[in-house]
Amino acid sequence: MTTFADSLLRLRHAFVSGKSRSEEFRINQLNSLVQLLQENEMELLNVLYKDLRKNKFEAMIAEIGFVKNEATYALNNIRSWMEAEIVEKSFITKQDQCFIQKEPFGLILIIATWSHPIQLLLMPLIGAIAAGNCVVLKPSEVSANTSALLSNLIPKYLDKDCFAVFIGGPVETRKLLQFKFDYVFYTGNSTVGKVIMKAAAEHLTPITLELGGKNPCYVDQSFHLESTAHRLTWGRFFNAGQSCVAPDYILCTREVQDQLVPAIGECLDTFYGKDPKESPDYGRIINDEHFKRLLELLNSGQVIIGGETDNEDRYIAPTVLIDVKESDPVMREEINGPILPIINISSLEEAIGFINRRQKPLSLYIYSTNNKVVNEALEKTSSGGFCSNDNAVQMTLNTLPFGGIGYSGLGMYHGKFTFDTFSHKRSCVLKSPGMEKINSTRYPPYNEQKLRWLLWATDVKKRDCSCQLL
Question: What CA–CA distance (Å, rounded) separates 175 from 342?
Fold first, then answer.
């Protein structure tokens, strides 16, 4: 507790001093973060391999390269993001300066998860730096090798007065949460998310929760077989299925299933060979606990593809399950592994009903060549993100917000949305001491003339929004 307290006090003093707020400081720290990634690329690739058997390709596009692009995007736009936002004025405030000032919250706590241990720790950090905050980082103890390396590197590249890294497990996290932070950003599961939310409530601390969930994937009868099979297979088994935006289960008719399953099998052969265990492009389960959990989920439905496992290697083959029921274990929790269940439904309406009676997901995917099907699914469902005829790509655009809704999360980030998340929007009006005659109309004693004038001066006039339908 003493170590935490001393470190947090140091960071708090640095923020109060204004050290983290200047544009120059923010730019320098973001450049240093990019430098960290560039100068330690091999070491970062090595620890990702040790933790997840993550190959270089997946590590670069979803971790190192992804974070570099986010930092560069912030550097390219930070000046405009920091500028005050001028707002529309009323008649009474015509002579005043009215604007929204973007100011940092103060001391931020970022708690990351293990599935993408570099991306999910450093992506929110970029926005927190850009917004002028001081930050405490808590990487996941599950991805132990990556967390250890980052805890060693970050103090070498970022200002020690403004940034700190603490490693450890749930005990250390609970101790950290006893302290007052000005904002808490958590990525993980909904069970821990509730704990984070309760702890933050004790201090009335605002939070962002990125919680994942079971992402539905409806495959319509009008689907394009080749592209659907390739994209679904890639999305589900990328990082050995350990991704919060992966398609978690498929909803389709049995006729669609009969076409899709063989096509997925062919894709798996093309991607990973006849024995995925020997493929350099196929990852492993993060630890023994998650491996055992996934073994239990394999007892759902019927294995139609894959199912092979190796305890010592923490290997689970890319697996497809059919004849899955909604009550099966694999449908009760986010899978976070290389298992793809298929549930048969008879129509789009039934699929929408199935999706809507469950918790709102982080992502929702629709595969169809029929725009009416896509639009109906979009209009009649709710999710953090939506993508048709592909998966995961919605999170790669830093001009789109990324976040969940309900059980899948609270708040959003990526690009400017991260800057906005970590910025307090301060309402500002700068008035002159003159023109007191106009202002006197609001002072007692009141009369009908003053009332009529003030109502006229503050009245919001309705614009003519009528337009002719084409």
Answer: 42
83 has catalytic annotation: no
- Residue carrying structure tokens 């006229």: 456
What superfamily does domain 2-211+412-424 belong to in CATH?
Answer: Aldehyde Dehydrogenase; Chain A, domain 1 (3.40.605.10)
Could you tell me if 272 and 282 are in contact, meaning their C-beta atoms sit under 8 angstroms apart? yes
Q: What is the pLDDT of residues 105-149, one digit of tens each?
A: 999 999 999 999 999 999 999 999 999 999 999 999 999 999 999
Please say whether the structural domain 216-397 has been given the CATH code 3.40.50.10490.
no
For residue 195, give the amino acid letter. Answer: V
Active-site choice (162, 244, 252, 387): 244
Tell me which amino acid residue 32 is: S
Domain boundaries of the chain, sorted by first residue: 2-211+412-424, 216-397
Q: To the nearest 10°, the Cα dihedral for 247, 253, 258, 261?
A: 0
Active-site residue 428, yes or no? no
Q: Which of 58, 63, 70, 210 is catalytic?
A: 210
pLDDT digits (tens, 9 = 90+) for 295-311: 999 999 999 999 999 99
